Design the sequence.
């Protein structure tokens, strides 16, 4: 089958007008790295931050084999696998966690720049610590999401950073000469005796966002034996529940590998890791139907950097699948997003529990 970037899809992530599986930055990264990849031996190419497979499959279609890939979102991994299978390139790459093995002895790294400087610092440090001394990194993105501080972060770990000309509102930073490498470690902050841990790129970092604080202030006094924290982020809600309710076990899940690592570190730091299990999952796909009494949710509204109102209803629908009849979904959301109609339709009767100047906490009962 002839490969074309235009044929890539985002599934199982949201697919809607204006939400593309490939953009101009992907194409520029591939073009800028083409010469460096041309004579590369198998197994020495690494792809990081590939949204839906454009970078990986673009390299594979040019002949690369043994590509090592890390994507933070599990939906990105699933989209890459589906796209690769469709075009017959699924044997060309291996998906790996963000650790030393994914970048060890790499000669070329192609990557999308993360928006978080801490995430970029973690990735750059890891490459500098474990890649080949001659490694060349091609890190690109949309100009509207890039800052000069990204250049400085790369210069912390590489002796030379070059900047390409802009094309279609995209640009690539090219880094050489790795130095001062380091494996990622979670940052920590203490809030009211709760230790929050966060690897670079985790939502809200080591802070506790306003919506989560409102949800914490209105948690039920009585908890069932098991609670689900869907889209758990850094694990703040899961850790608080486990500390307040010693008999309750918490199943926490998130699509983001960084969030999962952060939540596990948060549970460990607060001494509740034995009662908080954290998994990377697309929604609650690993959970059976109609088995949960209580699900807590602070739904995301960004998909690969794009703001979309279509994301949260997927969470509501899967929460409804997992809740038993009469079970409750306790949800916090930005009041301007007007979620009650979707909650009523997808879950069941919904009431307002609390509201401040920006956020609302609602409780929906599974019909």
Sequence:
């Amino acid at each position: 089958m002839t490969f074309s970037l235009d044929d890539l899809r985002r599934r199982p992530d949201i697919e809607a007008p204006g939400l593309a599986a490939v953009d101009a930055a992907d194409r520029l990264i591939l073009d800028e790295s083409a010469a460096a990849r041309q004579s590369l031996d198998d197994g020495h190419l690494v792809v990081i931050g590939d949204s839906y497979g454009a970078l990986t499959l673009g390299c594979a279609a040019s002949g690369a084999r043994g590509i090592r890939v890390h994507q933070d979102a599990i939906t990105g991994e699933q989209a890459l696998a589906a796209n690769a299978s469709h075009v017959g390139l699924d044997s060309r790459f291996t998906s790996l966690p963000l650790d030393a093995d994914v970048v060890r002895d790499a000669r070329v790294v192609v990557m999308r720049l993360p928006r978080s400087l801490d995430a970029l610092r973690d990735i750059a440090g890891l490459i500098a610590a474990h890649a080949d001394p001659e490694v060349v990194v091609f890190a690109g993105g949309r100009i509207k999401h890039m800052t000069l501080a990204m250049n400085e972060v790369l210069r912390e770990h590489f002796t030379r950073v070059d900047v390409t000309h802009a094309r279609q509102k995209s640009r690539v930073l090219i880094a050489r000469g790795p130095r001062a490498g380091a494996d990622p470690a979670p940052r920590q902050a203490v809030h009211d005796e709760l230790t929050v841990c966060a690897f670079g790129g985790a939502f809200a970092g080591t802070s506790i966002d306003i919506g989560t604080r409102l949800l914490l202030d209105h948690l039920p006094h009585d908890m069932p034996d098991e609670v689900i924290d869907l889209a758990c982020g850094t694990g703040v809600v899961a850790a608080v529940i486990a500390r307040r309710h010693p008999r309750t076990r918490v199943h926490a899940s998130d699509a983001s590998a960084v969030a999962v690592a952060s939540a596990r570190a948060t549970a460990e730091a607060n001494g509740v890791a034995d009662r908080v299990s954290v998994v990377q999952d697309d929604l609650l796909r690993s959970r059976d139907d109609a088995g949960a009494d209580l699900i807590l949710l602070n739904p995301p509204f960004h998909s690969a950097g794009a703001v979309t109102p279509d994301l949260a209803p997927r969470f509501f629908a899967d929460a409804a699948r997992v809740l038993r009849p009469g079970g409750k979904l306790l949800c916090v959301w930005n009041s301007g997003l007007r979620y009650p109609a979707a909650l009523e339709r997808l879950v069941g009767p919904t009431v307002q529990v609390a509201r401040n100047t920006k956020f609302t906490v609602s409780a929906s009962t599974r019909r």
Notes: The chain has a mean pLDDT of 96. Residues 24-38 form the longest helix (15 residues). The CA atoms of residues 47 and 333 lie 34 Å apart.
